[in-house]
Amino acid sequence: MTNIFLAVLFSAALCAPASAQEKRVKSEESLFLDLEKIGLGSLNEMDEKRKFLETIRLEKQIVQGKMLDAIYENAYEYYRNGNYEDAKALALKIIAIDPNYQDAQMLLEASNQLRGSLKPGMSEKLMLEDRFKTALSYYTEGRIVEAHTKMTEVVKLSPNNIKARYWLSKIKEDLKEYYFERGSQDYQARDLKGALDNFYNALLIRPRDSLTIEWLSRIEDELRQQRANDMLKMALEFYAQGRLKDAYDGLRRSLEVQPGDSKCNKLLAEVKSEIENGYLAGGKKLYGARRYPEAIGEWDKAKPYTSNMAYLNKLISRAREQMKLEANEKRRRAEDAARRARAEEEARVKEEEARKKAEAEAKRKGVTVDEIGKKPVGVSEENRLAAQQHYVEGLKYFQNSNYDKARDEWTIARQLDPGSADSASGLKRIEQILSGGQ
Fold it and tell me: What pTM did the predictor assign?
């Protein structure tokens, strides 16, 4: 849709001389409004609208340039045919859209000067002769740029003027030398940007001049080196202030301008090493405090600066493994605590039952509970079997060197059967081992 609209707009511009009174050249604002009508209002997303506007802007510039060139050709045709009024009207339209269009300014000035003349041909000849003499006067005075501008106008207004074309060629050669000399002077004064501008102006006049190209190459190299040195200096200041990341960014920008700078490469390696070591030290400190996720975060930050990625990955892997081991140990301890709590509760219940049974027995016999307790009380078959089972479980744990669990099992067996010599012997052995004995 956009391309169709632009093509129609361009075609309308080409038809301007045939219907100059009926179809006017559009202003810049009206052109943009027409471009907006293509579909800008239907865009909702900001990014899409921004991209669309950028596309419109670029296409408008291209089409506008071609359109103005076509209109200028029509205006020039009016001028050549002596129709100075229409030439002036079109030149004004061009200037309204692009005030910097120099040829339109020239055509407007010439049209104004010749408009209303009784003998246009003679007036034009006198006007061109006057401009030619002015150009030669400027040239004689050494005002090369002004002479070139004025003689160019004569050639554009009168392309078949052989004398003007000859002098323009001669002035262009001197203008090239003028810009070359100005560039050399600027270079001697260490104004590298000014020198570059002047040498490029000289190159525009003589595009294949090898000496000018050589100078341009030299100055551009020096400008790159100068920019790289400025960036390096700023990076060194950041480094002295301890702003390592800013120094790192500055050094990288410097190397983008001057990739082969060995001094900059060496300093960049040192800065990267310091940044990496800072993250490594911070991560190890957090690891020692058992703050494993934060330690891993520090080591991840070190990755853009490291030359040993395998070492960082090893540290991170170790931290994750340690997190897993500690989580498993915490779960095991919780399970052991719950098991001991259940065993203690069971023992308490059994003791409560034994106490109530003793009280009932003492009441039945008419004696005190203490007296009942002094007499040997037999162990029920059920408790003896349960005690034996806990003893066997404890023995398995003992053989696997899991002394905590073995002690838990034998303690329960001892509570169920206080007379169990095996349980008593096992508990005694565990106490000896845990206390460092044999």
Answer: 0.43
